# Entry
Amino acid sequence: MDFETLGDSLRDFIHEKPLISALIGIFVLLFFAALVIIMIQTSKPAEPVQTFREEPFSADAKLLIPSSPESEKDYYPSRTIKNAWEEKDIEPWFTKPDEETLKNLEKANDAIVSDIIGAAP
# Structure
């Protein structure tokens, strides 16, 4: 087979079916890109060059051991837990809801319950 006839037939194919030839070209480019990426990823990393000298350690003075961290005065690793709150502990955090808020809450809960029960057979 002659290279000239191969080139002519390839040129004719590209002109007759440009979409298919463009897709084939894109796939070929993606294949080679993937091949290059795989080759780069699988190559062995270069050995790091050691830039320092190893010298044995010899202390010229006595080593000082750091003192242990001291806990703060108000810090306790454990505490006793109260089983129930006392009334004086509750007062700053709890406010009693008014009647209107309770009625709105009751209506919202009744609507949710009726939706659930209404769907039941």
